[in-house]
Amino acid sequence: MNYQELADKIKIWAKELGFQKVGICDVDLQEHEAELQKWLDAGYHGTMDWMARHGMMRARPAELLPGTVRVISARMNYLPPEAQFASNLDNPNHAYISRYALGRDYHKLIRNQLKKLSQMIEKEVEQLNSRPFVDSAPILERPLAQKAGLGWSGKHSLILDKECGSWFFLGELLIDLPLPVDTPSEDQCGSCKACITSCPTNAIIEEGIVDARRCISYLTIEYDGVIPVEFRKAMGNRIYGCDDCQLVCPWNRFSELTRQNDFHRRPTLIEPDLIELFNWDEDTFLKNMEGSAIRRIGHRQWLRNLSIAMGNAPFSQTMIESLEKRKGLSSELDEHIDWAIAEQLMQAEEKSRIEIKRERLIRIVQKGLPRDA
């Protein structure tokens, strides 16, 4: 069989299936094992126990599918025309949701397309042992993507491509065919540290090393406990994930828009008002988040995240009343609600002091007295 010809066909088929770029690499990730173990030993994975449980399997794709000799790494853009980054992040009364989660859950869509790609390959070779993955197994997808030429690992640990930045999903298809491999991507971040300095919670502790326990994406999505007070103010109005490190990245000036309508912002999340989202009962939450990645955190964690954003929002008596009505669901949620109410009341007091000072200044000016009178 002409494997080079087959590899060329695979890349054509992949684009027909909606992928923007595909690369092929071998399965040797031995050079990443020590780094992975060091990260785990430091506890940077937080409560994501499965990362430690699977250990070095993450760096050994052939253990996931015996006989695997190649990985087809594919990317699919998710940036829509109406990204509305600044309008939501800059409005403290609106909820900021990470761009990747505003549309439909990408896992099933990409996995289905990878399955179709596998079927196309199988028709060509008659017999194929393959398995698709989209965040669904312990596998180091980013080192594989870099090895396959899809981009390099930035200082924020995400994959960057000079042609399109970082707004894309990754998926892998493990196969048992000795296809020719692509040239790995080289690091092109240079001396830029914008992602490191922009992180609201200083989660990027070294170049390429993220302490998940400090990361807003981890805290709002993966972590279901009490969010440490030290991070609550820094979270601002981010209720599901965080895009700050990507928003400041110079390479994202070249981002390509998605061709998938499924990744466009769903109507219920257009200008999402904090109070309105917080007032959703569980049935409304499940209905409005149907088909969304957000659904998996559950209604109570949704309320937890929103309560922190409400504590960071400008004072509103309506907001305090909404928070009060939610008390009693759980002690953990109550702790965040009490914090939010206290923050709201502090803002009310500050607002009152400013108003008193302002009125005093007006009276002084009207009387023609010096301002320090």
Q: Can you write the helix and strand succession as a string?
A: HEHHHEHEHEHEEEHEEHHEHHHHHH
Mean pLDDT: 93
Counted by DSSP, the helix tally is: 16
Sheet with most strands: strand arrangement? 1-2-7-4
Class computed from helices, strands and strand pairing: alpha+beta
* Unreliable stretches covering 5 or more consecutive residues: none
Cα radius of gyration in angstroms: 24 Å
Distance between the termini: 93 Å
Helical residue percent?
Answer: 40-55%
For the report, how would you describe the main beta sheet?
4 strands, antiparallel
**What portion of the residues fall into strands of 2 or more residues?**
5-15%
> Can you tell me the overall shape?
elongated
Total E-strand runs = 10
Number of domains: 2
Function: Catalyzes the conversion of epoxyqueuosine (oQ) to queuosine (Q), which is a hypermodified base found in the wobble positions of tRNA(Asp), tRNA(Asn), tRNA(His) and tRNA(Tyr).
Enzyme class: oxidoreductase
Binding site for [4Fe-4S] cluster 2: 199, 215, 242, 245
Binding site for cob(II)alamin: 58, 135, 153, 159, 170, 217, 242-243
